[in-house]
Specification:
β9 (175-178) and β10 form a beta hairpin. 28% of the residues lie in helices and 20% in strands. A six-stranded mixed β-sheet has the order 1-2-3-4-7-8, covered by helices on one side. The chain is an alpha/beta fold. Bound molecules: zinc ion (2 copies).
């Protein structure tokens, strides 16, 4: 896992020779290979109005391209309806998040992943399980992987994340996971949650963003850190191809309206994939943010703590006004009787 972003040059060359070589390399060939194309379904599993009356499989498995799988947890199995990503390299595989359901009977995630993993040397390919962040809906399935051979689960706490990826100046620096013929860059993106990471896959040119950027409510814990993260990712991707931004949830319909919190039914669901414009617009959206709520076509910025505090204040003012009105009414009535 290299922490620097410098490309390595052949040893034994002088600085001048390396500079010349750099010039030739950059002018002779494009810096980044063409991403492997993939497909996305027009419609994911949207749950049901009455889940009991219309049973459905807990997991939808979609092959984006032969080495990249997208798994969607059914909104009926859990309202969070997480998206989980499996990336296969020639030496190991990477699972991004384990979703919102722990019980393997209700959600056989580990079994589904093992079925997708190819064999190498008569054994399943080793698997590394990482998390976009530590919120329970992104790691509830972890125990299903705990006792499997050749599986490593990265810890969810900040210290564990920093130590595993080698971030010694968090949230600065980029880590690199080498899956064999496929490199995934790991970018710290705190703001929604202190431990948040985004993952950039050099094979497909997809950025996996968890709850940092998705067609949903972007819940803000630290607006300053969030904006810095957005700038960091924009800068990282400036020269790189970006095919799609794929996040952890869909909470909006195609018109950009949010489903009721906790809903098991997503009629006319917004598409999962976001584009570079959605990312580049994010820092400015934070500059304009009023600290409570802002709606954009493809996401909603919201600080639920601020909004709850404001609602609490309004409730207090209304209750205070009502109490004062009652006190005056009773005082007037007492005076009239006297
Ligand atoms: Zn979250
Ligand atoms: Zn989430």
């Amino acid at each position: 896992m290299r922490r620097d972003e410098l490309r390595r040059f052949p040893c034994g060359l002088s600085d001048a020779a390396m500079l010349t070589l750099t010039g030739i390399l950059f002018s002779a060939s494009p810096a980044w290979a063409e991403p492997v194309p993939g497909s996305l379904p027009a419609q994911w599993n949207i749950g049901a109005e009455d889940c009991a009356a219309s049973p459905q499989p807990p997991l939808q498995v979609h092959t984006y391209e032969p080495q990249t799988f997208i798994l969607r947890q059914s909104p009926c199995a859990n309202f969070e309806a997480n998206f989980i990503y499996l990336l296969i390299g020639s030496d190991k595989a990477l699972l991004i998040d384990t979703g919102a359901v722990a019980d393997p009977k209700a959600m056989p995630l580990a079994q589904a992943i093992l079925e997708l993993l190819p064999d190498k040397d008569n054994k399943k390919l080793p698997l590394l399980v990482v998390h976009t962040h530590r919120h329970l809906d992104h790691r509830a399935g972890d125990p299903q992987f705990a006792s499997l051979p050749s599986v490593r689960v990265v810890p969810v706490d900040l210290e564990g994340v920093r130590a595993f990826f080698g971030f010694d100046n968090w949230p600065n620096g980029i880590a690199h996971l080498d899956l064999g013929g496929r490199t995934v860059d790991v970018i710290p993106t705190p703001g929604h949650n202190q431990t948040h990471l985004a993952f950039y896959d050099d094979r497909t040119g997809v950025l996996f963003t968890g709850d940092f950027l998705m067609p949903a409510r972007l819940l803000i814990e630290d607006a300053g850190a969030y904006r810095e993260s957005a700038l960091r990712v924009v800068d990282f991707l400036k020269m790189r191809p970006l095919t799609h931004i794929l996040g952890g949830h869909i909470e909006l319909n195609a018109a950009g309206r949010a489903y009721r919190f906790g809903s098991h039914y997503h009629p006319n669901e917004h598409r999962l994939e976001l584009a570079r414009e959605d990312l580049t617009a994010l820092p400015a959206a934070f500059e304009r943010f009023n600290g409570f709520y802002a709606r954009y076509p493809n996401y909603i910025l919201t600080n639920s703590v601020h909004t709850l505090m404001a609602l609490g204040f309004i409730v207090l003012v209304v209750l205070g006004g009502a109490a004062l009105g009652l006190y005056r009414f009773l005082r007037r009535r007492r005076r009239r009787r006297a």
